[in-house]
Every structure is written in C-alpha cells, then in structure tokens.
Amino acid sequence: MVISDDNPRYVSRLTRNTLGPVLAGGRGSRLYELTSWRAKPAVYFGGKYRIIDFPLSNCVNSGVRKIGVLTQYKAHSLIRHLMRGWSHFRRELGEYIEVLPASQRYSDDWYQGTADAVYQNLDIIRAERPEFVLILAGDHVYKMDYGPLLVEHVESGADMTVCCLEVPVAEAAGTFGVMEIDNTGRVVGFQEKPAQPAEIPGRPGYCLASMGNYVFTTDFLYERLIEDAATIGSTHDFGHDVIPAMIESCHVHAHPFRDPVSGDKAYWRDVGTLDSYWQANMELVTTTPQLNLYDSDWPLWTYQEQMPPAKFVFDDPGRRGLALQSMVAGGCIISGSEVHGSVLFSGVYVHPHSLVDGAVLLPDVEVGSGTTLGRVIVDRNCQIPEGMQIGLNPEEDRSNGFRVSAGGVTLVTRGMLGQAEGSL
User: Is 192 part of any known ligand binding site?
Assistant: First the structure.
C-alpha cells in the first residue's frame, strides 16, 4: 500500500479495520495531588485540552474511528469529558468512541495490568472482529499518524509492532521499557526500566524506549492474552510480561517514532511528574513551540464550554491588564494585572495589581488582588487570597502547606488552601 504525498492521512482499509483500545485507567501518582480527584489522562493540558484528547485526536485524524477508552482510577471527570466532547460519532457509520470501565467481565478483579485490561474486554473486541488492534497509552502528549505504523506492521510481517522513541541512555535508565533490535528492526531483547539500557546499534549513547503503543494482528493478540492470563506469577502487563515472553518465539517489530518531515525524533511528552508537566506547558508559550497546537492539518479535538472571549481591562499606569508570551483561554479576565510566560485555562480571573509569571492556572482559578505567582501549577477552582506570594520562595511555600517539586515548581490545590475539594 502506498501513502500518497498529497494525502498522507489516507483512510485505508488498514485503519478502517483497526480497533483502538486506549488505556486510560492510570492514576499518575507522580503528579501527587493533581491526580487526587482525576485519572492522569483527565489532567488538563495546553490551555483548553485534557491529556486524553491527544491520543483520541491522533486516532480520528489517522482514520482509526473504532475506539474504546478503558477507565478505572477515579474516572468520573474523564468519563464526563468523553461524554460531552467525544460522543458525536455514529456507530451506524462504523465509528464510535466508547467507555470501557473496569467491570470484572472475566474475573472478580479490577484491571490488574495493561494486558489484563485488554484481556478483560476480549469479548467486546471479538464482537467487533477487527483485523488489527492498536493499543494506546492514554496519558501522553504527542501528535502521530498511526497509518504509517499500521503499514509498517503489515509490510514487516510482524505479529506485534512496538512504537518507540530514540532517547539518550541516561534519560531512559530506570524510566522506560527498552528494546534491542537487529538491523531489520526486529526486536531481539526487551527490558522493562533497566538501570543500564542497551544502546542502538550504530548510535552510541542512545536507546529505543517503548512509548506504550502496540499494534497486534488480532488473532495473535487473543492467543497472547489468554496465555498470559493463565500464567501463574504474571503481573499481566505488556512491558513486564507479554512482550519479554514473545521475543524468542514471535516476530516483534520496532517502529521508531520520527517527525514525518524532518525525520528527526518527534515531539512526545510523558508529563508524568510535576516538573515535566509544568515544563511541557511552558514550552507551548515559546515563539515556535515544537508542539504546534495551531496546525489546521492536524486538529486537536476536545470539549469546551461556550464562553466569551478573554478580556484585558484597564490601561492606567500601574494598573494595566495585559498578557505577554502567554496562552489565555476563553472566559478569562485579566483585570489591571500582568501575565507573563503563563498558560491560563478557561474562566481564570486575575484581579488588579497582581503579577502572574511562569504559571499554569487550570480552569476557573481566581487570583486575588495584589498577588504574585511564579513557578506554580494551580488546580481548578482554587481561589488565591489577596496579597499572597507563591512560587517565589520554595521554603516559604512548603511551610504554607504547598507541594514543591524537585525542580522547584509549586503545586497549589483547593485542599492546601483549606477549600473544599471534589471531582473535577
């Protein structure tokens, strides 16, 4: 099959006959209180999106229109977002996005691991009769056309294909699943979060790290999952158990994820820590960010409330409403205050004589008058009292009950401010 240069996202038989389960049940414990009331895929990102919007948009733009979102941990806000923003697909036209919550379909347990999550939905997959199953992690930020991945899977003759990134060895150590490959791209070794990752042949200092995205030929997937479910001592995880058990006897292929234009390493972020989450948002306010949210050829879909445009009011000396090198969503009001190098989600209200510099403010945050915010992440619905200074002095922030990351980013939640918390 040839993918035309004029239409690189041609919806082919491969994409039409592919089912995309998205693993979205993870807690994201390294985000601490930011995921106390929501699963990691439901965390806000980029001024108006949630993380789950990125793999779902990738599927839709790639022509994979049969999608199941597997949920488990504190899924209320995630399911609500999916119902409001992603429920417009028509099953009678062969497309849908359905929620597949942990429901003990095959055992008395909830999802025990990534492989078990898919195993417990085997009856649903069988009923759809897909030719291929594209298993995706639901908690990463990136843009990827899955069509070429499916083409390479078929052309290589693989039973399974693993999406991977070329990353420095030091960065991958203890963090990613790492693959060893031969000169044809066949995986000959797999280690889950090794202390000393194996290097890519001919590229010293770099290794192939798994993105947590896998393509299976469907019948082969059935066999592997049933076998793993019956294996005593298995943790029922693709990285820990299923892939390592396949290396010697099956054809596992590696698909490096590269920029389709430059051929270089493509943009991909885990945003699994407070520092990486803050940094990835800050990257978006640079003049030419690597992740282009304004690309009309690859639209990012989401749900958003119908809100008025952002407003900047007052133009007096010492009381001027402005935002520079920032992203400001609809419904925000910057009233006689300055915003620099920040990301403001919808409905944020910054009262007069305040300075916001290097902040990520989630929806409906209210910043009191005379407040200074530095390197902070402020959770949804927080009301910052007048005159507070947060994100400037880590020790002072800790003494005030806020969480300060290893990189010096301060997290503020309603609970830390003595305000009522809940599902968001």
Answer: yes
Mean pLDDT of the chain: 93
Q: What are phi and psi of 80, to 5 degrees?
A: -60, -45
Q: What tokens appear for 328 in the block? A: 């400001």
Burial pattern 82-121, b for ≥16 Cβ within 10 A else e, equals beebbeeeeeeeebbbebbebeeeeeeeebbbbbbbbbbb
291 vs 52, 265, 295, 357, 401, CA distance in Å? 16, 13, 9, 21, 34
- Give the CATH architecture of domain 311-417: 3 Solenoid (2.160)
The answer to the question of whether 276 is labelled as a binding residue is no
Closest CA to 343 of 366, 367, 325, 322: 325
Please indicate if the annotation marks 210 as binding a ligand: yes
In this predicted structure, the answer to whether residue 358 has a pLDDT above a threshold of 60 is yes
* Same fold flag, 8-272 and 311-417: no
Q: Is 49 annotated as a binding residue?
A: no
Task: Say whether 62 counts as a known binding-site residue.
Answer: no
Calpha distance 187→119 (Å, rounded): 23
> For the domain 8-272, what is the CATH code?
3.90.550.10
pLDDT band at 5 (very low <50, low <70, confident <90, very high): very low
Q: Are 98 and 83 in contact (CB under 8 A)?
A: no
